[in-house]
Write a structure and sequence with these properties.
Elements (H helix, E strand, L loop, with lengths): L2 E4 L22 H4 L3 E3 L2 E9 L2 E6 L4 E3 L6 H4 L3 E3 L5 H4 L2 H10 L6 E5 L3 H15 L6 E5 L4 E5 L2 E7 L7 E12 L8 H9 L5 E11 L6 H4 L4 H5 L2 E4 L12 E4 L2 E2 L8
Protein backbone atom coordinates (compact mmCIF):
# COMPACT_ATOMS: atom_id res chain seq x y z
CA UNK A 1 0.00 0.00 0.00
CA UNK A 2 1.37 3.38 -0.95
CA UNK A 3 2.23 5.89 1.73
CA UNK A 4 -0.52 8.53 1.82
CA UNK A 5 0.29 12.18 2.45
CA UNK A 6 -2.43 14.79 2.88
CA UNK A 7 -2.13 18.19 1.24
CA UNK A 8 -3.29 21.06 3.46
CA UNK A 9 -6.80 22.05 2.41
CA UNK A 10 -7.12 25.33 4.27
CA UNK A 11 -3.83 27.13 3.76
CA UNK A 12 -0.86 27.04 1.46
CA UNK A 13 2.29 25.28 2.59
CA UNK A 14 5.08 27.71 1.79
CA UNK A 15 3.50 29.52 -1.12
CA UNK A 16 1.33 32.56 -0.50
CA UNK A 17 -0.97 34.44 -2.89
CA UNK A 18 0.41 37.57 -4.55
CA UNK A 19 -2.28 39.42 -2.59
CA UNK A 20 -3.27 37.43 0.55
CA UNK A 21 -7.04 37.28 1.21
CA UNK A 22 -8.15 39.95 3.66
CA UNK A 23 -9.85 37.36 5.85
CA UNK A 24 -6.73 35.20 6.11
CA UNK A 25 -4.33 36.05 8.95
CA UNK A 26 -0.58 35.97 8.23
CA UNK A 27 0.82 32.45 8.60
CA UNK A 28 2.85 31.69 11.68
CA UNK A 29 6.59 31.49 11.21
CA UNK A 30 6.55 27.74 11.83
CA UNK A 31 3.97 27.12 9.10
CA UNK A 32 5.59 29.60 6.72
CA UNK A 33 8.89 27.74 7.00
CA UNK A 34 7.33 24.29 6.63
CA UNK A 35 8.02 22.48 3.38
CA UNK A 36 6.22 19.26 2.58
CA UNK A 37 8.55 16.64 1.11
CA UNK A 38 7.26 13.66 -0.79
CA UNK A 39 9.44 11.08 -2.47
CA UNK A 40 12.44 13.36 -2.08
CA UNK A 41 10.69 16.34 -3.69
CA UNK A 42 9.66 19.54 -1.91
CA UNK A 43 6.01 20.23 -2.75
CA UNK A 44 4.24 23.55 -2.34
CA UNK A 45 0.86 25.01 -3.14
CA UNK A 46 -2.77 24.89 -2.14
CA UNK A 47 -5.86 22.87 -3.04
CA UNK A 48 -9.36 23.75 -1.88
CA UNK A 49 -12.25 22.32 -3.85
CA UNK A 50 -14.22 25.03 -5.65
CA UNK A 51 -11.74 27.76 -4.70
CA UNK A 52 -8.26 27.07 -6.01
CA UNK A 53 -5.74 24.36 -6.81
CA UNK A 54 -2.06 24.81 -7.59
CA UNK A 55 0.49 22.08 -6.84
CA UNK A 56 4.12 23.05 -7.31
CA UNK A 57 7.27 20.95 -7.68
CA UNK A 58 9.89 23.74 -7.53
CA UNK A 59 12.98 21.59 -8.12
CA UNK A 60 11.54 20.64 -11.52
CA UNK A 61 10.22 24.17 -12.17
CA UNK A 62 6.69 22.98 -12.82
CA UNK A 63 3.20 23.56 -11.46
CA UNK A 64 -0.10 21.77 -11.95
CA UNK A 65 -3.20 23.96 -12.33
CA UNK A 66 -3.46 27.57 -11.23
CA UNK A 67 -6.81 28.49 -9.71
CA UNK A 68 -5.29 31.66 -8.29
CA UNK A 69 -1.81 32.96 -8.95
CA UNK A 70 0.36 31.92 -6.03
CA UNK A 71 3.56 33.92 -5.79
CA UNK A 72 5.62 30.73 -5.71
CA UNK A 73 3.96 29.50 -8.91
CA UNK A 74 5.21 32.50 -10.87
CA UNK A 75 8.80 31.23 -10.85
CA UNK A 76 7.85 27.85 -12.36
CA UNK A 77 8.66 27.57 -16.06
CA UNK A 78 6.16 24.83 -16.93
CA UNK A 79 2.44 24.90 -16.12
CA UNK A 80 -0.01 22.05 -16.71
CA UNK A 81 -3.75 22.77 -16.82
CA UNK A 82 -6.07 19.82 -16.24
CA UNK A 83 -9.43 21.37 -17.22
CA UNK A 84 -11.39 24.58 -17.51
CA UNK A 85 -13.03 25.04 -14.11
CA UNK A 86 -11.97 28.39 -12.67
CA UNK A 87 -10.54 26.91 -9.48
CA UNK A 88 -7.98 25.24 -11.76
CA UNK A 89 -7.39 27.82 -14.51
CA UNK A 90 -8.56 31.17 -13.11
CA UNK A 91 -5.06 32.45 -12.32
CA UNK A 92 -3.62 31.74 -15.77
CA UNK A 93 -3.51 35.31 -17.18
CA UNK A 94 -2.02 36.66 -13.94
CA UNK A 95 0.65 33.93 -13.95
CA UNK A 96 1.81 34.96 -17.42
CA UNK A 97 1.57 38.66 -16.59
CA UNK A 98 3.57 38.27 -13.38
CA UNK A 99 6.36 36.41 -15.17
CA UNK A 100 6.53 39.19 -17.73
CA UNK A 101 6.61 41.84 -15.01
CA UNK A 102 9.55 40.04 -13.38
CA UNK A 103 11.27 39.69 -16.78
CA UNK A 104 11.28 35.92 -16.60
CA UNK A 105 11.28 33.92 -19.80
CA UNK A 106 7.82 33.26 -21.29
CA UNK A 107 6.37 30.13 -19.67
CA UNK A 108 5.32 26.95 -21.43
CA UNK A 109 1.67 26.15 -20.70
CA UNK A 110 0.08 22.76 -21.39
CA UNK A 111 -3.68 22.49 -21.84
CA UNK A 112 -6.19 19.94 -23.14
CA UNK A 113 -6.21 20.34 -26.92
CA UNK A 114 -9.95 21.04 -26.96
CA UNK A 115 -9.36 24.26 -24.97
CA UNK A 116 -6.88 25.77 -27.40
CA UNK A 117 -9.17 28.30 -29.10
CA UNK A 118 -10.83 29.34 -25.85
CA UNK A 119 -7.54 29.87 -24.01
CA UNK A 120 -6.17 31.88 -26.93
CA UNK A 121 -9.31 34.04 -26.79
CA UNK A 122 -8.81 34.43 -23.04
CA UNK A 123 -5.35 35.85 -23.60
CA UNK A 124 -6.57 38.08 -26.43
CA UNK A 125 -9.13 39.63 -24.09
CA UNK A 126 -6.54 40.26 -21.39
CA UNK A 127 -4.11 41.72 -23.92
CA UNK A 128 -6.81 44.15 -24.99
CA UNK A 129 -7.60 45.07 -21.39
CA UNK A 130 -4.02 45.42 -20.16
CA UNK A 131 -2.30 46.47 -23.40
CA UNK A 132 0.48 44.00 -22.63
CA UNK A 133 1.97 41.20 -24.69
CA UNK A 134 1.45 38.34 -22.22
CA UNK A 135 4.14 36.28 -23.91
CA UNK A 136 3.93 32.53 -23.46
CA UNK A 137 4.14 29.25 -25.34
CA UNK A 138 0.83 27.39 -25.44
CA UNK A 139 1.04 23.62 -25.98
CA UNK A 140 -2.31 21.88 -26.56
CA UNK A 141 -1.94 18.16 -25.84
CA UNK A 142 -4.24 15.34 -26.85
CA UNK A 143 -4.66 12.39 -24.50
CA UNK A 144 -1.68 10.09 -25.03
CA UNK A 145 0.46 12.79 -26.62
CA UNK A 146 4.05 13.19 -25.37
CA UNK A 147 6.11 16.37 -25.16
CA UNK A 148 9.83 16.60 -24.37
CA UNK A 149 10.31 19.20 -21.63
CA UNK A 150 14.09 18.90 -21.65
CA UNK A 151 16.60 16.22 -22.48
CA UNK A 152 15.96 14.22 -19.30
CA UNK A 153 12.28 15.04 -18.72
CA UNK A 154 9.08 14.53 -20.69
CA UNK A 155 5.34 14.66 -20.10
CA UNK A 156 2.41 12.60 -21.36
CA UNK A 157 -1.25 13.58 -21.10
CA UNK A 158 -3.64 10.88 -19.87
CA UNK A 159 -7.41 10.55 -19.75
CA UNK A 160 -9.35 11.55 -16.64
CA UNK A 161 -13.09 11.48 -16.00
CA UNK A 162 -14.79 14.74 -15.03
CA UNK A 163 -17.91 16.73 -15.92
CA UNK A 164 -15.78 18.91 -18.23
CA UNK A 165 -13.19 17.74 -20.77
CA UNK A 166 -10.15 16.98 -18.65
CA UNK A 167 -6.81 15.23 -18.55
CA UNK A 168 -3.97 14.51 -16.20
CA UNK A 169 -0.23 14.53 -16.77
CA UNK A 170 2.58 12.05 -16.12
CA UNK A 171 6.12 13.40 -15.78
CA UNK A 172 8.85 10.96 -16.81
CA UNK A 173 12.56 10.88 -16.17
CA UNK A 174 14.35 10.01 -19.40
CA UNK A 175 17.73 8.27 -19.42
CA UNK A 176 19.96 6.94 -22.16
CA UNK A 177 21.51 3.57 -21.34
CA UNK A 178 24.18 1.95 -23.47
CA UNK A 179 23.06 -1.24 -25.18
CA UNK A 180 24.38 -4.48 -23.73
CA UNK A 181 26.40 -5.38 -26.82
CA UNK A 182 28.44 -2.18 -26.61
CA UNK A 183 29.30 -2.35 -22.91
CA UNK A 184 33.06 -2.49 -22.37
CA UNK A 185 34.07 -1.04 -25.74
CA UNK A 186 36.74 1.69 -25.68
CA UNK A 187 35.50 5.26 -25.77
CA UNK A 188 37.06 5.82 -29.19
CA UNK A 189 35.10 2.90 -30.63
CA UNK A 190 31.87 4.12 -29.05
CA UNK A 191 32.46 7.53 -30.61
CA UNK A 192 33.17 5.99 -34.02
CA UNK A 193 29.98 3.94 -33.91
CA UNK A 194 27.92 6.94 -32.86
CA UNK A 195 29.34 9.10 -35.65
CA UNK A 196 28.61 6.36 -38.17
CA UNK A 197 24.94 6.46 -37.23
CA UNK A 198 24.75 3.35 -35.06
CA UNK A 199 22.21 3.55 -32.22
CA UNK A 200 24.31 2.58 -29.22
CA UNK A 201 21.82 3.42 -26.46
CA UNK A 202 18.31 2.54 -25.40
CA UNK A 203 15.99 5.23 -24.07
CA UNK A 204 14.50 4.42 -20.67
CA UNK A 205 11.47 6.37 -19.42
CA UNK A 206 10.43 6.15 -15.77
CA UNK A 207 7.10 7.60 -14.58
CA UNK A 208 7.97 9.93 -11.70
CA UNK A 209 4.99 12.20 -10.95
CA UNK A 210 1.36 11.82 -12.01
CA UNK A 211 -1.26 14.54 -11.49
CA UNK A 212 -4.92 13.77 -12.10
CA UNK A 213 -6.73 17.02 -11.44
CA UNK A 214 -10.46 16.45 -10.82
CA UNK A 215 -11.59 12.96 -11.73
CA UNK A 216 -13.65 10.00 -10.65
CA UNK A 217 -11.93 6.71 -9.88
CA UNK A 218 -12.59 5.55 -13.45
CA UNK A 219 -9.10 6.71 -14.39
CA UNK A 220 -7.73 3.84 -12.31
CA UNK A 221 -9.55 1.28 -14.45
CA UNK A 222 -8.40 2.80 -17.75
CA UNK A 223 -5.88 0.35 -19.29
CA UNK A 224 -3.97 3.24 -20.88
CA UNK A 225 -3.20 4.71 -17.46
CA UNK A 226 -0.84 2.01 -16.17
CA UNK A 227 2.02 4.50 -15.83
CA UNK A 228 -0.19 6.74 -13.69
CA UNK A 229 -0.70 3.94 -11.19
CA UNK A 230 3.01 3.10 -11.20
CA UNK A 231 4.43 6.62 -10.95
CA UNK A 232 6.60 7.26 -7.91
CA UNK A 233 4.25 10.04 -6.75
CA UNK A 234 0.52 10.30 -7.47
CA UNK A 235 -1.25 13.62 -6.87
CA UNK A 236 -4.95 12.81 -6.81
CA UNK A 237 -8.33 13.95 -5.55
CA UNK A 238 -9.33 10.52 -4.28
CA UNK A 239 -7.94 7.01 -3.91
CA UNK A 240 -10.74 4.59 -4.67
CA UNK A 241 -9.62 1.17 -5.91
CA UNK A 242 -6.48 1.70 -3.80
CA UNK A 243 -5.46 -1.94 -4.15
CA UNK A 244 -4.55 -1.18 -7.78
CA UNK A 245 -2.20 1.69 -6.90
CA UNK A 246 1.51 0.90 -7.00
CA UNK A 247 2.72 4.43 -6.21
CA UNK A 248 5.30 4.93 -3.48
CA UNK A 249 3.57 8.10 -2.29
CA UNK A 250 0.09 9.56 -2.77
CA UNK A 251 -0.66 13.24 -2.28
CA UNK A 252 -4.35 13.89 -1.60
CA UNK A 253 -5.73 17.22 -2.83
CA UNK A 254 -8.98 19.08 -3.52
CA UNK A 255 -10.45 18.90 -0.03
CA UNK A 256 -13.72 20.72 0.58
CA UNK A 257 -13.61 24.10 2.33
CA UNK A 258 -16.62 22.91 4.34
CA UNK A 259 -14.40 20.74 6.51
CA UNK A 260 -11.47 21.38 8.83
CA UNK A 261 -8.58 19.23 9.99
CA UNK A 262 -9.86 19.27 13.57
CA UNK A 263 -10.92 15.97 15.09
CA UNK A 264 -13.76 16.13 17.59
Amino acid sequence: MAKTCEFLAEASLTATPLLPPVSTPPPSSSKANHVLKIGGYPVEGISIGGKETCVIFPTLSLAFDIGLCLQRAVSQEFLFISHGHLDHIGGLPMYVSARGFLRLRPPTIFIPACLRDLVEQLFDVHRAITRSELKHKLVPLEVGEIYQLRRDLKVRAFRTYHVLPSQGYVIYWVKEKIKHEFIGLPGSEIKRLRLSGVEITNTLSTPEIAFTGDTTSEFILDPDNADVLAAKILVVELVGQSDKLLNKAILLIHFSARYTSEVG
